[in-house]
Design brief:
The protein is α/β, with parallel strands linked by helices and 379 residues long. The chain has helices at residues 14-20, 22-30, 69-86, 96-109, 121-125, 129-141, 153-161, 209-222, 244-253, 266-271, 286-293, 324-336, 339-357, 359-375, and strands at 6-10, 34-39, 55-58, 90-94, 112-117, 147-150, 170-172, 195-200, 226-231, 257-260, 274-277, 297-301, 316-319. It has 2 domains: 6-177 and 358-375, 3-Layer(aba) Sandwich (Rossmann fold); 195-357, Rossmann fold. Strand 9, helix 9 and strand 10 form a beta-alpha-beta unit.
Amino acid sequence: MSKRKKIILVANSTWNIYNFRLNIIRKLISEGHQLVVIAPVDEYLEYKEKFPDVKHIPMKTMGRDSTNPFRDFLLFVELYRKYKWLKPDLILHYTNKPNIYGGLAAKLLGISSVAFVTGLGYSFIHKGFLNFIVRKLYRLSGKTHKKFIFENEDDLRLFIDEKIVKNQKAVSVKGCGVDTSYYLPYPNGIAKDKITFTFIGRLLYDKGIREFMDAAKITKKKYPISSFEVIGEFDTNNPSNIDKEYFVDWVDSGIIDYKGFVRDIRPVLRQTDCVVLPSYREGMPRTILEGMSMGKAIITTDVPGCRETVENNINGYIVPSKDVHALANAFEKMILLPYKQRKRMGEAGRKMAEEFFDDKLIAENIVSILNPLLHGSKA
């Protein structure tokens, strides 16, 4: 076995670790490495039950959506002090602020670090001062990391084209993956009179929730047998959070069935016919991967991240972003599709999940990228 290394994972929430990073933690532990997680503590600290040997250090100054420069400076100082104390061999940074401020702290201490760009979010979708600042900060961080690992090809090309990162530092993987042994295609759909479309995600305009509801209204008027579910929660700290009164009006109208936040999404996915995510931009949408793994047809948008999950007319439909009528047309096509063909779509998606998006394959791919940094020079 190779020499044991100390590796730190840094994220903006323990929720992020619990939902997206357990596969890489499991793989690195199996390789014999010592792991430390630095993240704000939340209820998802329960991941420690599976990995008692992982040391978790709370992050106290993370303001995930804060634009306060003084608070960001405190985050940099906190990470610098923690890195200096822990003396790791490698640091893996996830999400924007750890990528930017953690990368700078690691560079000043001469510690090898990696930035995982897991999605560019609000600051890249919307033009303005925040967009300008984040791009400037990422250009600075491009000089601090040994590698940038992206979750889709579009984000990789964007960073290279804008000279944020050099080509030799950039590589993409297929997101964080999905556990295909946990998200099983059972039951793989049942022929029935009603067809259910399910939106799963935070209730953000940038996720396409407004387009989903508007297209649902058009479709339900023409096809009363159609049903539209929304699964997710508000994100009040995000500028793209949907207006609550506006959303309640849609729920009261009976057009959508709001199920709230569901921690175990599998029972919902078993009952739905089609998973829908009309997002404006993603890293690699986990909810779509979970739907594919469970053998469900997909409708999503032709945007970074989303477009890599669907082969049009094979495992679902791709529509233009922000186009309500195109989305309603896709709903209609899915409703009119014979049950056997919709079932074949789900089976094609399951095969794609197994071949390209399985979280064990993703973890192996990531570790193969990290190994030269772990066993080469730290400088």
